[in-house]
Specification:
One of its GO terms (molecular function) is phosphorelay sensor kinase activity. The chain is of the alpha+beta class. It contains 14 helices and 19 strands. Helix content is 53%, strand content 19%. Strands 1, 2, 3, 4, 5, 6 and 7 form a 7-stranded antiparallel β-sheet that branches. A 5-stranded antiparallel β-sheet has the order 9-8-12-11-10, sandwiched between helices.
Length: 628
């Protein structure tokens, strides 16, 4: 027995040593590369974070300029508006309201047009600026561009845009506005005639603040380089970065590498770059010492862990070999009984070592086996319940497919039938017009049903696109009021329909089309289930929320079914007196849109009296209560 124990000790020590060599050395190697890759990933993420912040400013500025150019091209007549100073002045006065609308919609820091005074002499500009960026714009006095020193660097926005078509300037101080700017300028040519330049500006200190706000390494520095690969800004003025360091960053950017290591004298740097859409570049540099500090610490830690692990393994091998042989036979007998199906067997080992622990784990295993057998019956019951739920879901889907078939077949048959009637040569003009009206109505019904089904699929998959903008609620409700008033006159003229929106001078940040579609679902549902009385569309504002409610005097539903109406494919109203059209996804889509737009939806109803559905949206502090 003692010889066996010695052999066991030697064997375990050798196995542990070989395992550490085979697993430890590759582990250190791969851990080192993993730590290096993590550091590179962190640098790339920080670089991309800074780039996204700058890119948002660039995109907003370009979008503002493009919107202004589109408005100019749609209303500018080269022959009439650009023939003399008087005609151009008249055009400017007519065009200023469109500029104001763009300012209120997009909220840029500035927006301007400078006309070419070589073609039409005089001071011809339209320039608005919001110096405090509080939504209050002031118009800047007009000036003659040809009276400026066009060779001065502050006029690059004119000369470069005219030469290249568009340009981003380096930071410069604009005396008239008393601020440091980066300008985006676009040359406008109509019928090959140069009209002038338009564009917008960004406060350069704000870009610097965005870069300074990105948390970097202790030795990390963020740089912004122009399209010539020259540094125009370094975060926090980068006091620890020398001229050679700046040259190293510029050289890496010029090579086009996204990540590189550079050395200049005693300094070694890891440099990450990210190209912006306007051909500028954001660069991030970190000293190699800090970059690799995590790798070195990881290697030291792993070596200590491996050494301690080997020592502990040797001690455990000796202890284990001294005690393993005596209780092993006893434990083996217990295993044989358990193998024969006796789940009540338990080990009784008190060696105060690993064998006792093994005996305890054996007991735990047997307890777990008994528990598993007991839980098996419960699991079978759960499976049966899940099967019933699945069958219920299949029933709902089958019902939905039947409704789907009906909702598609009915308008299609109407379209085909009225198309054949229109093809009849004996049909009069009035009859054909009436047939065409029916075809158009059923086509619209079919298109709306398909759109609802596609929206339901997008909401289920979480793939519904959201395009946020400022939305005037009163305008949305007015459009829906006009739409459903026409529907009331046509389908149910005996009903009343009113919209209470006098106090709804509220604007929200939302998707206007999805918001209108959400309210339309509620109105559709109200019109469907209301045959007498009327429907009310109401908007109101609380201290923290903005609410839109649709109330009807329809058939209503019981309180125990109010939650069912929001479930997919489910129709809470079943009656033999009347069949209501629909696939059972209208209110499901409504709830999905409400949640997608960060709102909530609630339904209250009384059978025989009517239903009220309320959608609430939170009012954020940064959102104004009305259009300025």
């Amino acid at each position: 027995m003692y010889g066996y124990r010695r052999k066991l000790i030697v064997l375990m020590v050798v196995l542990v040593a070989v395992a550490i060599l085979l697993a430890g050395l590759p582990g250190i190697y791969f851990a080192q590369h993993k730590a290096q890759n993590d550091a590179v990933t962190q640098m790339r993420q920080l670089t991309q974070l800074a780039s996204e912040s700058i890119e948002n400013q660039i995109s907003e500025t370009q979008a503002t300029s493009k919107a202004l150019e589109a408005a100019l091209r749609s209303s500018f007549n080269l022959q009439e508006d650009f023939k003399d100073p008087q005609s151009l002045n008249q055009f400017k006065e007519k065009f200023i309201p469109q500029v104001s609308e763009i300012l209120h919609l997009l909220r840029p820091m500035s927006l301007w047009i400078v006309f070419d005074s070589e073609k039409v002499p005089g001071a011809h500009t339209i320039s608005f600026v919001d110096k405090n960026q509080n939504g209050v714009y002031s118009r800047i006095k007009e000036y003659d561009i040809n009276q400026k020193d066009l060779q001065h660097p502050t006029m690059d926005w004119w000369t470069n845009a005219r030469a290249k078509g568009q340009t981003w300037t380096d930071p410069y101080y604009w005396q008239k506005w008393e601020m440091e700017l980066i300008s985006y300028s676009r040359a406008v040519n109509i019928d090959s005639v140069f009209i002038g330049c338009l564009g917008s500006d960004i406060k350069f200190p704000e870009l610097g603040s965005l870069l300074d706000s990105v948390h970097t390494f202790a030795t990390g520095h963020l740089f912004l380089l122009n399209e010539n690969r020259e540094i125009v800004y370094a975060s926090n003025d980068s006091p620890g970065v020398t001229l050679k360091d700046r040259e190293a960053v510029e050289n890496v950017v010029k090579t086009g590498n996204e990540f590189a290591f550079m050395e200049d004298g005693s300094n070694q740097w890891a440099i990450s770059t990210e190209r912006l859409s306007n051909n500028w570049t954001v660069a991030f540099s970190v000293s190699e010492e800090e970059f690799f500090s995590g790798v070195d610490n990881l290697i030291y830690t792993l070596m200590i862990i491996f050494a301690l692990g080997f020592s502990v393994a040797v001690i455990l091998a000796i202890s284990f070999s001294n005690y393993i042989t005596n209780p092993v036979q006893k434990l083996l007998i217990k295993f044989r009984k358990a193998t024969n199906g006796d789940l009540s067997v338990r080990a009784d080992i008190h060696t105060k070592d690993e064998m006792e622990e093994l005996g305890n784990h054996f007991n735990k295993m047997m307890n777990a086996l008994q528990k598993n057998f007991e839980e098996l019956s419960l699991t079978q019951q759960k499976l049966r319940r899940e099967k019933e739920r699945a069958q219920e879901s299949d029933g709902l889907k089958s019902s939905f497919l039947e409704n789907l078939s009906h909702e598609i077949r009915t308008p299609l048959m109407a379209i085909v039938g009225f198309s054949e009637l229109m093809a009849d040569p004996a049909s009069s003009a009035d009859e054909r017009e009436k047939f065409f009206s029916h075809i158009a109505y059923n086509s619209n019904q079919l298109v709306r049903f398909i759109e609802d089904t596609l929206l339901f699929s997008q909401l289920e998959k979480g793939q519904t696109p959201v395009r946020l903008s400022r939305v005037n609620i009163k305008q949305v409700l007015w459009e829906l009021n006009e739409e459903f008033e026409n529907r009331r006159k046509t389908e149910k003229p005996h009903l009343f329909f009113r919209t209470l929106s006098d106090s709804c001078e509220q604007s929200l940040t939302s998707d206007p089309s999805l918001l209108k579609r959400l309210i339309r679902y509620l109105l559709d549902n109200a019109f469907k289930f209301t045959d007498s009385g009327g429907i009310t569309l109401l908007c109101q504002k609380t201290n923290h929320h903005f609410q839109i409610s649709v109330s009807d005097s329809g058939i209503g539903i019981s309180s125990d079914k109010t939650e069912l109406v929001f479930k997919k494919f489910c129709k809470a109203i079943e009656t033999n007196d009347r069949v209501y059209d629909g696939a059972g996804i209208g209110l499901t889509n409504a709830r999905g849109l409400a949640l997608l737009l960060e709102g909530t939806i609630e339904l209250t109803s009384t059978p025989g009296e009517g239903t009220t559905v309320t959608v609430s949206f939170p009012l954020h502090e940064h959102e104004p209560n009305a259009y300025s």
